[in-house]
Write a structure and sequence with these properties.
The chain contains 10 helices and 12 strands. It is of the alpha/beta class and about 375 residues long. The protein has 3 domains: about 70 residues; about 55 residues, no CATH class; about 180 residues, von Willebrand factor, type A domain (Rossmann fold, 3-Layer(aba) Sandwich), CATH 3.40.50.410. It has a 6-stranded mixed β-sheet with strand order 7-6-5-8-11-12, sandwiched between helices. Strands 1-2 form a two-stranded antiparallel sheet. The chain has a two-stranded antiparallel sheet with strand order 3-4. The longest helix is centred in the middle third of the chain and has 18 residues. The protein starts with 17 loop residues before the first helix and ends in a 7-residue tail after the last helix.
């Protein structure tokens, strides 16, 4: 008997290399610089002067060369500016997923499972007798042969229809999601950067769906004075504009996108920090940045009611603590029979993940 074997602990054995550590910092800075690689590298140079994370063996020039050799960075030979690659964009999404969802507790729920059986990817422990219309690949031959032996014996072995046993599959449903992101000017006002955590959540959620739920659909809608869709690859470059908050336009576009989806399960996630302040009536904009204008609010409430009739729940993630704004969100949520989270910036990602992953209709405080 060998027993336990002990070896000397080496804290640096599984440590990240200098390049990997600097890559982590580089991808973080890219989120703040809206994907501007030249600006991110300039920031790294300034940070290196203060914190000295490079040395005589590995400097910033080595890091830039490694980025180019590993297809994280492309250099324009004409002006010398740098641009990130598709590999870098995917790395940012993966690191956002790890940062936001990595510390969550394990849960038995997830993968959109239901209590129903049907055509699914995984076999269930449940079985039942054969019925007309069952597929050949559903037959549990081990149980079916055992039934035939019990019913007719080994010597006169034969298998009849009533011996056949069917192995059920767990039914896993699909979901169509629209993620709405507020890019109005208030997302960077009052000394708070609210657009960066919103982008991280969007990137993490998109990476989660693409890797774990490949059959699901995700549309991303940004809204300011107007609303439009963006691709997942555009998320690192998303910037706030000099916009008001046209929540109505965002909801109308989200509803239109979900109407085209054939999945029975549809939902809207909305990340915002401000009250609705804008409408587009014809070709003109109706704007009011002071208080909650009932003309604007009522249109939002009506759309919430329409979504309820279409069985589209809206989950609102409000990055604000103003009591009058929370009152509006509560009214909006009650009309839709949806969910609302009044979360701080550090809790936003975890709430979104928990809601999407579990697929449960419950209030989490």
């Amino acid at each position: 008997m060998i027993g336990f074997q002990f070896s000397q602990f080496n804290p640096n054995e599984n440590a990240k290399s200098t390049f990997e550590q600097m890559l982590d910092l580089f991808t973080q800075l890219l989120t703040y610089t809206n994907g501007d690689a030249t600006e991110a590298l300039s920031w790294m140079n300034e940070l290196d002067k203060k914190y000295r994370f490079t040395n005589d063996d590995y400097g910033m020039g080595d890091f830039i060369n490694d980025l180019k050799e590993n297809d994280y960075l492309k250099e324009n030979p004409q002006d010398g500016n740098f641009k990130i690659t598709g590999k870098t964009e995917k790395t940012i999404r993966k690191k956002s997923l790890e940062e936001i969802f990595g510390k969550l507790k394990k849960s038995k729920q997830g993968n959109h499972q239901t209590f129903k059986h049907g055509q699914g990817d995984e076999a269930s422990s449940d079985s039942r007798p054969f019925q007309f219309g069952d597929r050949l690949e559903q037959i549990d031959f081990t149980e079916s042969i055992r039934n035939a032996q019990v019913n007719r014996g080994v010597e006169a072995f034969s298998m009849q229809e009533d011996d056949l046993q069917i192995r059920e599959n767990d039914f896993k449903t699909q979901t169509s999601t629209v993620l709405m992101i507020d890019i109005s000017h208030s997302m960077i006002l009052y000394g708070e950067d609210r657009i960066t955590p919103a982008k991280k959540v969007a990137m993490a959620l998109s990476e989660l769906i693409q890797t774990k739920y490949p059959k699901d659909t995700l549309d991303i809608v940004v809204f300011g004075n107007d609303a439009w869709t963006i691709e997942v690859k555009d998320l690192p470059y998303l910037q706030v504009g000099p916009y008001h908050t046209n929540t109505v336009a965002g909801l109308e576009l989200a509803m239109d996108l979900l109407r085209r989806r054939k999945n029975p399960n549809k939902q809207i996630f909305m990340i915002t920090d401000g009250k609705p302040t804008c409408l587009k009536i014809g070709s003109k904009y109706y704007k009011n940045s002071f208080g909650l204008d009932r003309k604007v609010v009522n249109r939002c409430i009506n759309l919430a009611a329409q979504c309820k009739k279409l069985k589209i729940p809206i989950t609102t993630f409000m990055i604000a603590s103003d009591p009058y704004l929370q009152s509006f969100v509560q009214e909006f949520t009650e009309m839709n029979n949806g969910k609302a989270f009044f979360a701080g910036l550090d809790k936003l990602g975890a709430f979104i993940f928990k809601d999407f992953e579990n697929g449960k209709s419950k209030t989490v405080y």
